[in-house]
Amino acid sequence: MESGMAVMKKKTKSQSTVTSKKTGKAEAESAVKTVLRSDCFRIMNEDGSVDLKADPKLDKTLLLNIYRHMALTRAFDERGMMLQRQGRIGFYVPSFGQEAIQIGTAATLEKRDWGFPSYREPGLFLYRGADIFSMLCNLLGNSGDLCKGRQMPVHYSFSKLKLFSVSSPIATQLIQAVGVAMASKISKTKEVAISYCGDGGTSENDFHSGLTFAGAYQAPAVFIITNNQYAISVPLSKQTGAKRLVDKAVGYGMPGVAVDGNDVLAVYLATKEAVDRARRGDGPTLIECVTFRMGPHSSSDDPSRYRDEKMFQAWAKRDPIKRFKNYLETKKLWDEKKEKSLQEELKAQLAEAVERAEKQPAPTLEDLFDDVFSELTPQLKKQKAELLYEGELRGKFENTSEAFPL
To answer: Given 128, 293, 318, 323, which residue is catalytic?
Structure first.
């Protein structure tokens, strides 16, 4: 038999473990409440319920379209990560948990408006009508890619949809957006430019330059900060000493609002007001969407090395898709039968697009010299001939994921 002291030690150790687990969960919940405090605009409660007075009562067709594209965005992300893990593509950047921001903002835009996304907004492309097949061809870097395999995976470009090419250097798209917005103001086209960056992007010079000019010239621009609390592994506390990133709006002479980024209704309403302001000629707006990056920074990242798993568990309770689904079910617009049908449809749609995309051949060597000069210079003609000759000696160029060893 064990001595009384031994039993007491075991009991104390067990109690300590339980207490530690409870403390960890409590700290994670407290951290969530700290960033989602009362000054953060929201419509839905965490279970998807809404006070009748606060319900915006949006059109049924709009609500269902928003939900469909949120589900599509997640399904696309899941397929992208799966393709990378299977070695079929070299790199992927998921946006798990940030679907409400992408779709809630995209739903406020008109066709004439301009979008300047970061590399974590696949939903913006999908909502604006980007072809899934073309997006997959970008991931594969094949001849079906509109950029002919010259861009990194997830760096989509759809100029016909007025969506500028994604660039890796963060926040560069903000100054581009302001330039387009200023052109719109001068030409009186009433086109609005919306741009996106993360919390880390607010530490870049381009963020400051873009918002300075937008404020000074009252450009019809909307700036979305996706505050997912980490710039890869750097926490928000190392990005700013301000209580809110949106506090920066005051210094640039524009209004700003912090929004619950997992509440698609709140994101939509805040962005709609900002877009309407810009179109009326009332100037730019800064919107901070507070959320959490539920996946890795990219397929090359291991977030467990710098983030507590309990943070994931705490934010999983606030999943933007589940939250909005509960809202739709409460309004009798959605049920499990419709959900099953949608998931099956999306799965089949993605499977078919992947199969077609993987059959596309690699870009040719000749493609490297296209789309820059209307007529090649003598030097480029010589380089092209030398490259093609070398290609013949080395054999056929193969399209493999090794092209992106990231």
So the answer is: 293
- Catalytic residue at 293? yes
Q: Where in the chain is the domain with CATH 3.40.50.970?
A: 27-358
208: annotated active-site residue: no
CATH fold of 27-358 reads Rossmann fold (3.40.50)
Among residues 74, 79, 120, 297, the one annotated as catalytic is 297
| CA atoms within 13 A of residue 271's CA, in its CB half-sphere | 31
Cβ 98 vs Cβ 261: under 8 Å: yes
Residues 73-122 have pLDDT tens digits of 999 999 999 999 999 999 999 999 999 999 999 999 999 999 999 999 99
pLDDT tens digits for 325-366? 999 999 999 999 999 999 999 999 999 999 999 999 999 888
Distances (CA, A) of 227 to 75, 142, 181, 340: 22, 33, 23, 32
Q: What is the pLDDT of residue 7?
A: 38
Cβ neighbours of 216 (radius 10 Å) = 11
Give the whole-angstrom CA distance, residue 296 versus residue 274.
Answer: 30
119 catalytically annotated = no
What's the rounded Cα separation, in Å, for the pair 222 and 68? 24
Rounded CA separation 185/112 (Å) = 14
The conformation of residue 163, written as its DSSP 8-state character, comes to: B
**H-type alpha helices, 145-204:** 172-187
> For the whole model, what pTM was predicted?
0.88
pLDDT in tens, 245-281: 999 999 999 999 999 999 999 999 999 999 999 999 9
CA–CA distance from 64 to each of 74, 97, 102, 374 (Å)?
A: 16, 19, 15, 46
CA 37 to chain centre: 23
Out of 37, 85, 306, 389, the active site residue is 306
What is the Cα–Cα distance from 252 to 178, expressed in whole angstroms?
Answer: 13
